[in-house]
Amino acid sequence: MKIASYNINGIKARLPRLLEWLEETRPAVACLQEIKTQDEGFPAAEFEKLGYHAIWHGQKGFNGVAILADGTKPVEVLRGLPGDPEDEQSRYLEADVFGVRVACIYLPNGNPQPGPKFDYKLAWMKRLRARMAEIKAEEVPAIITGDFNVIPTDADIWSPKAMADDALMQPESRDAYLRLLHDGWTDAVATHNPRGGVWTYWDYQAGAWQRDHGFRIDHALLSPELADRLESCGVDKNHRGREKASDHAPMWVRLRPES
């Protein structure tokens, strides 16, 4: 079973590319971030034409996450990350699909730092850790995937100096991410690529794509029950180079059947 994550950077603007990717790669589950549309504007009918059923958590012009499943509708478990009743940003959606608990996340960017946006990022990561602990306690096969807006190590970026002051690389951001791994979650891409050098994002500016000046901020964290089933993982890099593409490339994991 293939589970993929794709920050689409505007589902209406990138819909042709998204449909193209779904048809070409056919993941069983696709988690989308930055759909940037209100709930009523989500193009569910377009996905249904391809056999995908969806649930989504939208927001006008910003953020927004969705989970698509091939041939079945995800069973929603949780909409919105618990821990802050005043947080109205659409960044978290959790569902059961094909026997796996799937959480799709769009973690706050946190720039500029220091400041309130960085404080919000760290608070959000603390809330995420609490929710992931609850999921892990259920002992279900689970994957937390999406745009984490964290570059975990210097091996996950083309030039550490280029982003040294960015919120994505601050010690506090990295420490919060590392705590998730220490809690028992497995970073799928890092496990299969221990030397790094795998990018999922290339900025639109300064010829970053043409020069391969990228970094890895899209991750898939697997619970112990699912980590044992990890067969392979990768990034559909060629989709980043297509016309009017997102600045992210889709990343995916392939899982062995449950024994």
Automatic annotation (TrEMBL):
PROSITE patterns: AP_NUCLEASE_F1_4. It comes from Novosphingobium arvoryzae. This is Nuclease. Probably binds two magnesium or manganese ions per subunit. One of its GO terms (biological process) is DNA repair. SUPFAM superfamilies: DNase I-like. The active site is at Y106, D147, H248. Mg(2+) binds at N7, E34, D147, N149, D247, H248. Belongs to the DNA repair enzymes AP/ExoA family. Residues 4-248 form the Endonuclease/exonuclease/phosphatase domain. Its cofactor is Mg(2+); Mn(2+). Keywords: Hydrolase, Magnesium, Manganese, Metal-binding.
